[in-house]
Amino acid sequence: MRLSSRASPGHGRFCFAAAISLDWRLSMSRQSMGRRSMSRRIRPEPVRVISRISASLIAPATAMAVNPPLLFVVAPATQLPQGSTSLEALQEAQASGPSTGFALRIFSRGAAHPDLGLLPLDGSLTGDKRRNSEGTQLLCDAVVVGIQPQHHWLGVYGGDPEDPSVLHCLDCVALSELSNATCWFYPTHDGSFLSWERGLRLSLGPGSIADCPEELSRMPYDRSQISVLWSLLGDNASLTCVGLTYGGQRLDWPLRSRSSEAVATWGRFRVDNEADISLVVEDCITVFAASLADS
Questions:
Q1: Predicted pLDDT of residue 203
Q2: Torsional class of 151: left (φ above 0), alpha (ψ -120 to 50), beta (otherwise)
Q3: 184 and 15 in contact (C-beta within 8 Å)?
Q4: Could you count the other beta carbons within 10 Å of the beta carbon of residue 84?
Q5: Number of domains within the chain
Q6: 193 lies in which domain range?
Q7: Are 282 and 113 in contact, with CB atoms under 8 Å apart?
Q8: pLDDT value of position 63
Q9: In this predicted structure, what is the pLDDT of residue 220?
């Protein structure tokens, strides 16, 4: 048995601009770069011959070595290790950081599910680890960590090339002092969709750069490469922090433990890009676990 409470349309938390998942299509504001025009010059043959000879006398450039992977800790400033430290100390520091968040899923074909109270508490509308079921598609499956830039700092650590077990603090900075970027996920196309959200208690390990390109791994650490990601959650008036990036790559904090709240929220929303209000929440309902319904 489950109990459910229904909210009036237009209320409830729905994330229509978020990040931190490989399943999301991210679009971030970036400064446009001007294109360099290139022209081809025809040089006399003698000059080209001299150029070849000169080039053969130049020793090939030595490739830059790959730096030890960077580790990132989000925690209160007083908990961030300074100087030389260890992985165990970083794990302990990260344990004092964000401990809440929420799981979020977006599905297609919202109009095909008129009674939200019949939908599963665990959000597995398409089945376990399936993205499609009877025409309904899972568009987004993400965990958003409750990072609070007004309270949290970021510690950045690099390994010692001579002793990988030794880590050094490269930087400590308040998240509020870093540059900001906006991000969002789709759908932006017209249609009816479902949103499922469930609160989480969690613990994290030190973060790293997800899918770090080799070029980025060869570059020295640079604070200007860090951006705090913000998104608009549904009809909220203010933005919410949903993660960080380094060099345009998202930072990923692995989940060490995770437990779900006993309630979940289902919503149905419609996107119409031709309308004055392009996104409208049509219905919202909170579903409770059976243990709460029996109490």
A1: 97
A2: alpha
A3: no
A4: 13
A5: 1
A6: 65-294
A7: no
A8: 52
A9: 94
199 lies in some domain? yes
Per-residue pLDDT at 16 = 39
The number of CA neighbours under 13 Å toward the Cβ of 157 is 30
**pLDDT score for 48:** 38
pTM: predicted TM-score of the whole model, two decimal places: 0.75
198 close to 265: Cβ distance less than 8 angstroms? yes
Q: Is the dihedral of CA 78, 80, 82, 84 positive or negative?
A: positive
Question: What is the pLDDT at residue 132?
Answer: 75
pLDDT number for residue 38: 34
Locate the DSSP E strands across 47-152. 71-75, 84-85, 100-108, 132-133, 136-145
pLDDT in tens, 67-97: 889 999 999 999 999 999 999 999 999 999 9
Report how far residue 238's alpha carbon sits from residue 232's, in angstroms, rounded to the nearest whole number.
Answer: 7
Spans of the chain, pLDDT less than 70: 1-66, 128-130, 185-186, 233-236, 291-295
Q: From edge to edge, which strands make up the β-sheet containing 167-174? A: 71-75, 153-159, 167-174, 84-85
- Distance of alpha carbon 6 from alpha carbon 8, whole angstroms: 7
- Measured between alpha carbons, how far is 94 from 202 in angstroms, rounded to an integer? 11
Task: Provide the 8-state DSSP code for 41.
Answer: -
Task: Find, among 106, 66, 1, the residue nearest to 215 by Cα.
Answer: 66
SS3 state at 294: helix
Residue 92 lies in a domain: yes
- The Cα 89–Cα 87 span in angstroms is 5
Question: How many Å apart are CA 12 and CA 45, to the nearest integer?
Answer: 73
Residue 24 lies in a domain: no
Q: Is residue 20 situated within a structural domain?
A: no
- Pull the structure tokens for residue 248: 């345009």
